[in-house]
Amino acid sequence: MAQPTSDLRSLFLQAVTLRRTVANRTDYPYSLPAIRELGTLELLTPVTFFVGENGSGKSTLLEALAVGYGLNPEGGTKHVRFATRSSHSDLHKSLVLAKARVAPTDSYFLRAETFYNLASVIEDPTDRRAYDLETFGGRSLHDQSYGESFLGLVLQRLRGNGLYFFDEPEAALSPARQLALLAAMHQLVARHSQFIIATHSPILLGYPGATIYLFGPHRPMPIAYHETEHYQITKAFLEHPDRMLRELLRDEGTPAEEVG
């Protein structure tokens, strides 16, 4: 896979800044260090990843970016409007988005936890917002696995020249399907698209030339792929599974050599 080059035409969202007037708030999500100390975060490569432990704020910021760009909080495009449960924060109101002069012609927000609800809206024949299922591979999304329907969306629905927000897309994808997603992303990047993705996947994080921001007890910091915990733990386990399992599964007080 050739490394993509940065193209201003594909960088529709170039930075996000937290307004100073809310920097001292202590309620959620401003209580999260990554949000409270956000400052200005630059998004200057076609693919940007947010990584970090659960609860670090990566999905919260991703959601706020998508909502701030006009997308539905529970997923979909700007034209899909539905709500099953209002769970998103007001963070989007506190962000200043640095947008390119030229707007994308396509956009999408994928949330793994609300994809079922989105599929139901898409397939409602009484709703004028319903999509032609041919854009999702010609099959009902509820008759497919989440992985199949998601890949159908990426391969059939996303047109390029777009801005795409994905929240943990690997949730139902096998390793082989994650590789297929990488290939599809690469094709869309070649068609002047930008991705911002919150993920735990060491496979997706390997996308060449991507910017990776680590969320933790500090403002989001850039980190190299091979320095991420996701890569290092996965590599250590695959190289020495027996050793890691012995250490992980041994009872407290039992020498590791006596386990397994």
Description:
With 260 residues, the chain is of the alpha/beta class. The chain contains seven helices and nine strands. Helix 6 (229-239) crosses helix 7. Mean pLDDT is 81; it is low at 125-132.
Which helices and strands appear, and what pairs or packs with what?
Blueprint: E1 13-18, H1 33-36, E2 40-42, E3 47-52, H2 58-68, E4 95-99, E5 106-111, H3 115-123, H4 146-157, E6 162-167, H5 175-190, E7 194-198, E8 211-216, E9 218-222, H6 229-239, H7 241-249
Parallel strand pairs: 3-7, 3-8, 5-6, 6-7
Antiparallel strand pairs: 1-2, 1-4, 8-9
Helix pairs in contact: 4-5, 6-7
What descriptors fit this protein?
9 strands; 260 residues; 28% helix; Rossmann fold; 3-stranded antiparallel beta sheet; alpha/beta
> What is the helix tally?
7
Task: Calculate the terminal CA-CA distance, rounded to whole Å.
Answer: 40 Å
Instruction: Report the C-alpha radius of gyration, rounded.
Output: 20 Å
Shape: globular
Average pLDDT over all residues: 81
Largest β sheet strand count, sense and barrel closure: 6 strands, mixed
| Strand arrangement, major sheet | 5-6-7-3-8-9
Work out the helicity level. 25-40%
**Can you tell me the CATH architecture of the largest domain?**
3-Layer(aba) Sandwich
Number of strands: 9
| Structural class by sheet pairing and helices | alpha/beta
The CATH class of the largest domain is Alpha Beta
Low-pLDDT parts are 125-132
Instruction: Estimate nothing, just give the exact number of structural domains.
Output: 2
- What is the CATH topology assignment of the largest domain? Rossmann fold
Beta content comes to 15-25%
SSE string, helices as H and strands as E: EHEEHEEHHEHEEEHH
